[in-house]
Design a protein that fits this description.
317 residues
Length: 317
């Protein structure tokens, strides 16, 4: 995934003073249009995964580094109980390095499992090979064997956290199958378990990609807003403007104000309609002389997910 360069806008002389005066919202009262997203393929996919993971030597859970706790499906994880597993925080290039290191250590200690972080923007051949050998070591220890003819790993996670992209990293850095798995910025592209994919020759390791599966219902309205902001749930489910508003709340809370310059604002704002109206005018998203707020909200979310508003985790930890 290639990140586009941020647009650097010249600040007006008043901007630093206005930023200093700005007070972000203490709470976010955004109400999503809907609080669940569980298409039919998720239910059937989960049932098949539960059957097939019985033969898995290791489960690789992929989570979005910007939502290290929210982007987990506790129900699905319970299905893997008793299997060796490791956790990968993907899209780590969208998060500050010191924060991601802190979270990796925190989760590893709490759950007693190995936790790693990866980025789609960096080639990391030796790291990936080491990761697989760690998984093989976990499988051997679990099964009290020295070695097997081959090993089977399952890659799991909620929609659009980077499961297929993670597998593509291996395919790019090995001499094996070069055909990439299909990826897209919207969730729900992978709807069934993939064919068996050979990832490594020595030791012989195969992987299965799996469809992203959410909880049938989310814990709270805030959970679905977080997932929509990061592209793990379609923003049409919550409402584009509602997802953008929730994102704005976190950007301001974390003092990430690049969006203000990108939109042409002199200072940050708590008013999502004002922000989107400025953005629409800057990007010529106008109709009959009026800003197209819904389209501007979609653009706003896309640019955040490209990393153009700064490195940020949308959770407290």
């Amino acid at each position: 995934m290639r990140l586009t360069r941020c647009l650097h806008l010249r600040e007006s002389p008043a901007t630093p003073h206005l930023i200093k005066q700005f007070v972000p919202r203490e709470t976010c009262n955004v109400k999503p249009k809907a609080t669940n997203w569980f298409p039919g393929h998720m239910s059937s996919g989960l049932k098949r995964m539960q059957m097939m993971t019985r033969v898995a030597d290791c489960i690789i859970e992929i989570h979005d580094a910007r939502l290290p706790f929210t982007s987990r499906n506790r129900f699905a994880n319970q299905s893997y109980a008793g299997r060796p597993r490791m956790l990968i925080l993907a899209k780590a290039d969208l998060v500050k390095r010191d924060e991601i290191d802190m979270i990796c250590k925190q989760i590893s200690v709490q759950e007693n499992i190995p936790v790693y972080s990866t980025s789609n923007t960096v080639r990391q051949k030796q790291f990936l090979r080491g990761l697989m050998k760690d998984g093989v070591g976990m499988a051997n220890a679990d099964q009290l064997t020295i070695a097997k003819p081959h090993y089977t790993f399952f890659v799991s996670g909620i929609p659009n956290v980077g499961k297929s992209s993670f597998i593509n990293l291996f395919k790019k850095d090995t001499d094996l199958d070069k055909n990439k798995l299909k990826v897209a910025p919207e969730p729900g592209v992978t709807k069934k378990i993939s064919n068996r994919l050979k990832i490594l020759n020595s030791p012989s390791v195969f992987m299965y990609d799996t469809p992203g599966v959410n909880l049938p219902s989310f814990d709270s309205p805030e959970t679905v807003l977080k997932l929509a902001a990061c592209g793990c749930v379609p923003s049409s489910v919550t409402g584009h403007v509602q997802a953008a508003d929730y994102l704005l709340f976190w950007l301001n809370r974390k003092e990430q104000y690049k969006y203000a310059f990108l939109c042409g604002l002199a200072a940050p704002s708590n008013n999502i309609i004002e922000v989107l109206a400025y953005y629409a005018r800057r990007r010529n998203l106008m109709k009959d002389g009026k800003p197209m707020i819904q389209q501007a909200a979609q653009h706003f979310l896309i640019r955040f997910n490209r990393g153009e508003f700064g490195r940020i985790i949308l959770e407290d930890f």
